Amino acid sequence: MFSSDEMYKRLHRFRNQLQESGNAGKPLYFAKVDVQSCFDSIPQKPLLRLLNALISAEGYTITRYAQAKALGACSSSEDQPTIIPKASWKFKGKAHIIDQKETFSDHAQKEAEAALGTVFVDLEGKTHKSRAGILALLREHIERNIVQIGKKFYRQTTGIPQGSIVSSLLCNFFYADLEQRVLDFLQDGDSLLLRLIDDFLLITTNHEHATRFVQVMHRGLPEYGLKVKEGKSKVNFDAQVDGRVVSRLPAVTNFPYCGNAINTVNLNITKDETRRQQNSRRLHSIRYHSCTDKRPDIAAATTVDFSRSPGQNFYRKTFR
User: Fold this and answer.
1) What are 257's strand-pairing partners?
2) Is the dihedral of CA 303, 305, 306, 308 positive or negative?
3) Whole-angstrom Cα distance, residue 201 to residue 229?
4) Which of 86, 248, 252, 254 is deepest in the core (most CB within 10 A)?
């Protein structure tokens, strides 16, 4: 997943899949692991070999376009001023193989089916990139990251630079290869493997597969530079790895994952209230409220830009 927004759709699809296969009533086994320093541990040579295989066409054409969507609807009433919707703009690029015949209208029509109320604007200018040029750019990005410590300069020889515009994408490609080659036993139709960059979550009706997943990940995968943070691993069943007990939650609980909580029985998803309360306690310890002892809920906070129409900005952000 590229964001936690994708979580609901995948859980919904998996629940329907369990119902269709007659496994809806079976216990669900949850296992969560977090990779330790994933960007700093990815080996560069295997990553470059993977990219060399993925980028197969000899050339690509990149088309630039913009998406505009109104935030809210135009409305007015006696007790509320007229609210003019504000447009949210996103600027994107679409790459396709040079020989592939696809117009901007074809692409916009495909995206519009899942983006109602959105206007697509063709920015016209096109650029062409060769396979050799793209691979050379990625090789420079991966192998030529220079770090200054004091007066000395060092070249990063293991891992990829953090904070780069493409590092998250490269990490996703690399761990997707791991899933296909090492965790292929989970492609049984009874398991759902979620991953947000380096946070893995397995949900399965197969106890054996859940146990095997925990053991494989905890024992590490040197060829992928993978080592998990054992202190952050969580399961809802009894699990041990080489005599070490993995932290366990109750079999029936709201299982925490990436700021959300997934019910281990019906797969309903909510916000992780435990995490929100911990954040509120941290904020309360920093900031004392003299009038009341209530702890602020920072998840419900919002900021409004100072402008000539602060009321409209507040309305837009609240509505959004």
Assistant:
1) 260
2) negative
3) 14
4) 254
Tokens 């995490």, located at residue? 275
Judge if pTM exceeds 0.85.
Answer: no
Distances (CA, A) of 32 to 40, 69, 195, 256, 261: 21, 36, 10, 9, 12
Tokens standing for residue 288: 């004392």
Contact 255, 233 (CB under 8 A): no
- The torsion angles phi and psi of 52, rounded to 5 degrees, stand at -60, -35
Q: Which residue has the higher pLDDT, 147 or 282?
A: 147
pLDDT of residue 83: 63
**Contact yes or no for 276/297 (Cβ under 8 A):** yes
Q: Which helix (H) or strand (E) holds 92?
A: strand 86-97
CB environment 64-88: b (16+ within 10 A), e (fewer):
bbebeeeebeeeeeeeeeebeeeee
Where is average pLDDT lowest: 2-16, 203-217, 249-263, 293-307? 293-307
Give tens-digit pLDDT for 8-51.
999 999 999 999 988 888 999 999 999 998 999 999 999 999 99
